[in-house]
Amino acid sequence: MADHPAGGTSPEALLRQRYMASLNRKYREMEAAWRDTQVHHWNATALTRLRTRVHRIAGSAGSYGLDELGELARAADTALKLAAADSGKRQAAGMAVQSLLRSLHSLAERSSA
Amino acid sequence: MGLPQPTIDFLHSELLRNTRCLVVSLDEEGRIARLDCPWGEWTLDILQPGRPLPPPLDAVLAAAPADCAVQYFPYIYLQDDMVADVYVLGKDVPHSLILRDVSDMHRAELKFQQKAYEVSLLLEKQAELNRKLEAQRAELERANQAKSRFIASMSHEFRSPITSIMGQAELLARADKESELPAAIQRASWHLLTLVENLLEQARLGEGIHQLSIAAVDLATVLTDMRLLFTAQAEAKGIRFSVADPPRSVALSTDELRLRQVLINLIGNAIRYTAQGRVELTLRVHGDALEFVISDTGPGIAAEDRERIFEPFQRLDPGRQSGAGLGLAVSSQLVRAMGGQLRVDSEVGQGSTFRVSLPRGAAEGEPDEVDLHGLRVLLVDDDPDVLALYEVFLEGWGIQVTRSSGYREALEHMADGVFDLALSDLQLQDGNGEELLERIRATQPECRTILMSGAGEPVQAIGRSVGTTDAYLQKPIPSDRLRATIASLAGRGPD
After folding, report:
1. Which residue of B14, B57, B202, B423 has the fewest C-beta atoms within 10 A of its own C-beta?
2. What pLDDT is recorded for position B64?
3. Cβ–Cβ gap B392/A15 under 8 Å
4. Could you give the 3-state DSSP secondary structure of residue B175?
5. Any idea of the CA torsion for B62, B63, B67, B68, to the nearest 10 degrees?
6. What is the CA radius of gyration of chain A?
């Protein structure tokens, strides 16, 4: 995203800064949703809340230049969808969510440093 | 009861309480002194007061050790089919024997043992059958693989001379431009090569091999080649074959060889089955998908045949038309392997339209210098980050953006205003984005629609959205792709 030709920062760049600043909150919210999902034995309400958070990252991260985060989120999105239909797939979904959380946490720490 | 206390105590134990028992009390000479039945009536002819113990009870008494207060002898056979557990009480007092009737239990146990034996025989038989089945399956698998290897080998052997014939025909055509013979030889060779390619592909697909070679496809060349390949064939039948020009600045990345094979199969079929009228090949862009449409004025396909025609060796009219029945099966599998979908729309007497939808792949963003100023766009997404970013993109292009974070809010905006284009995410908190776009089209038919999704299954979304929305875009959407799609739908760019 280039700087605005008239000087100052472009709207896209400002939005990107805002997005990066929101990563910490996104991490905390997703981590809480993941914990709830496990505590409540993957019930539909907790799982839906988690999937919504993962799905949003899947849809937005790439647009803000965070391609790897977006890929991890898409993988977790797909894995959670499968786990919702088949409890045997929960372990794989859990691993995908953990990978996403690690990446999100790492990015959040770097952006707030 | 007049019995010794130890006997009474034992009778009232958990073991014997309320079960059918007979107490046989003996005198000091070992004769039966009395018979008592604590609960209910039970007599045995072999036991008579004043008589000695009959066999086998006399042997039971003799076997009881002297130092044991109670000795247990299970399953003693008495008269007829009567079976009793026998308890011998003490040897330092006048003896008592307690008989407990276990005839029913004994019969049940015998029956159970018989059944267990029969089950074990069945299990053994089943294990034997499973072994045979496994052996047969392994044999079939070996035969199948051998067949596939044979087909692949033979097809390869056929391909070389056919290619040589086609090359010679090409040389003949250049040397004698007047003669029709070289063209006839080439057409027949193409037909033969197609059959061989389908056979080889069927063998490859049978072994689960999907080695695709993905690269940028020159669409103009592919379409031109199809025109050159089939025009003469169509004209010979008196039908018109037309190929639309490809959309400007549209790129496709896929396995070009397999794509050509699919188009050759579909166009060849269309011409073969059409007696009069036309066959057309056109292209349509749907955001991230490209659709090849082959339509004809042939006899059409009945509803009950529309699924089976995609199975191997299935032909609609085997008596009248040539072919091995592999073309559609192979095409369907190839398209799936390329990440796309092959569908047919057809009614008997109304011709057929085959649609090949393929993801456009990592195509470069098409250059676009189109002016989008003043375009009225409704943008719907429940993710505020996405909404904010795309709004910035759209407004940067001069577009008037109305943003909405959900289904209901979007419908309110539609009721209040007119839009040229509506973009919606598939999954909204309060509804389904595809349904929203369908409703928008129903109320504002001039409004074009784009469905966006971050879902991990783009092929299914393509198949679902084509026909219900104007375009589908998979997130993350680069700004140049978004702009090009909007431009093409708004009638201000390539279509």
Report:
1. B14
2. 82
3. yes
4. helix
5. -110
6. 16
